[in-house]
Specification:
Layout (H helix, E strand, L loop, with lengths): L5 H39 L3 H5 L5 H48 L4 H10 L4 H7 L4 H20 L4 H16 L8 E2 L2 E2 L3 H8 L1
Antiparallel strand pairs: 1-2
Helix pairs in contact: 1-3, 1-4, 3-6, 3-7, 4-6
Length: 200
């Protein structure tokens, strides 16, 4: 999975649909190029019997064979490059999907603040005013939301488990039980604090 920083997180939140569309267009174009190259390979891959049956001297046959072999190698190398590019695009889309899922795992006010600022692209001051917070408090929540996104993204936990764990911890705090790890429905709830320790 690709490594992300704060700038990459903001970019994905702001431009997710455009990025996914670009990846899909590139994948289609690259796949079509692979198909064309495969057709060319079939055309230039003459059997030796066909070359030997052509008119002209043996030297001409050898020269043509060498040209076709070189062209064949070039196309094969290009196909390998295309497959590598396609793999990079697959990893990029996977990173975008993972981060976006982590975004939905955020609770408020983190989710609402980041959604307003980056997904809806509202002005910073307008969003801050809507949340009726001091600038210091608002900025603390904004920054913490980004940190949580990266923490979730880099963890080994599934999105469903992250959402359950984070919601459970918030409930525990409200009920005064602190950050204890508990058993629930046969699986172990992982607290946000323990997740943070694992990432350090």
């Amino acid at each position: 999975m690709r490594s992300l920083d704060e700038a990459a997180v903001k970019d994905i939140l702001q431009n997710r649909e455009k990025k996914i569309d670009n990846i899909h267009r590139k994948m289609i174009s690259l796949y079509q190029e692979l198909e064309r190259n495969d057709e060319v390979l079939e055309t230039v891959a003459y059997p030796k019997t066909e070359l030997s049956g052509m008119s002209g001297g043996k030297g001409n046959h050898k020269d043509l064979g060498d040209v076709l072999l070189q062209y064949n190698r070039q196309i094969c190398n290009r196909n390998e490059e295309i497959r590598k590019i396609m793999w990079e695009l697959v990893e990029e889309e996977d990173s975008i999907s993972r981060l976006w899922a982590c975004f939905y795992a955020l609770n408020d006010p983190f989710y609402s603040i980041l959604n307003a600022l980056y997904v809806e692209n509202q002005l910073y001051q307008a969003v801050e005013n809507n949340f009726d917070m001091s600038h210091k408090t608002f900025e603390k929540y904004r920054q913490r939301g980004i940190e949580l996104l990266l923490l979730f993204y880099n963890s080994d936990e599934s999105i469903a488990k992250l959402m359950r764990s984070y919601s459970k911890e918030k409930t525990d705090k409200r009920q005064g039980r602190g950050k204890k790890e508990q058993k629930h429905n046969g699986y172990e709830q992982i607290s946000l604090s323990s997740l943070e320790r694992k990432e350090k």
